[in-house]
What does this fold into?
Amino acid sequence: MGPDNFFSSDASHQRLNSDLPFTFPTHLMDYVLPNELVDGMIAAGGKKSTVSVKNLLLRGFYSGSILGLAVILALTVGLKSGQPWLGSFLFPFGFASIVLFGMELVTGNFALLPMATWAGKCSWGATIRNWSWVWLGNWIGTAVVALLMAISLTSGWTVDPASAADGGGMWQQVAAKIIALNKANVVKKYEDLQLLGFFLAFVRGVIANWLVCLGVTMALVSKSVPGKILACWLPITAFQSMGMEHIVVNQFLHTAGPILGSGVNFGQVILWNFIPVTIGNIIGGMVFIGMLFYSTHRTQMENVLPTEHDDKLERELAAELGAR
It folds into this structure.
């Protein structure tokens, strides 16, 4: 293939820069420019606001269930290796699959739907509808995995997780770790501190979803599967390693904990974890990713898209963001 064939002369496929001797055609670049990304996210957000309740629940179920399994993997690897960071490093496989399959994760929607609303392609009523059903779908997915894992980890309720303290098997050690996390992240860190604890849960929720939405947004910047996985991996690893509060991960941990016999009731879980963490996740995603990117990269569609409509880019963004 000669250079004349490789570098297309079609202006609609080039981003012109008179200072360069040549430019790459956009269809050959594994990269979505920030303004194209934001405009695509806005368009997809408008479509997501009309997704049926059935699909919101099904896609939400997948996301919650896969994150529950990812948590179990992270805990198991961390305990077996004695290196908790290794479990955190493997944890993002669940998030990567959500991005690749276009599923519904409420924390990502906390950034996406407001962007569409500000652009006039959605309403706050539709945004709240989406958030509510996806939150529920995520919780149902985590609850199913929590129940199944509780049965597995206790060998059908025949083994007490407390036996891990006396040298029990790996499954019992994982169960005991979930119980310890449930107690620590509801009672010790938050309920015991009362108003300060509520505020701390909120702040950690802000940081967690700032990082999670950063990971998802970075993944959308790449058009290749390896690029998407690599881009989202580090921010997700960071929030997990830092011990921040992500509502869907918490839905799993703080549903599995009581099922395993932690003694923490769901009223405590909802008041001292689910409510402040959800509010924090909303602020983290909506303000620090959605509002920031919208404010600095939002442009009129006709000013950023090539004259020849890029159907491939639109399909990729729609699939990645679940707007199908």
Remarks:
- The chain has 14 helices and no strands.
- The chain has one domain: 31-320.
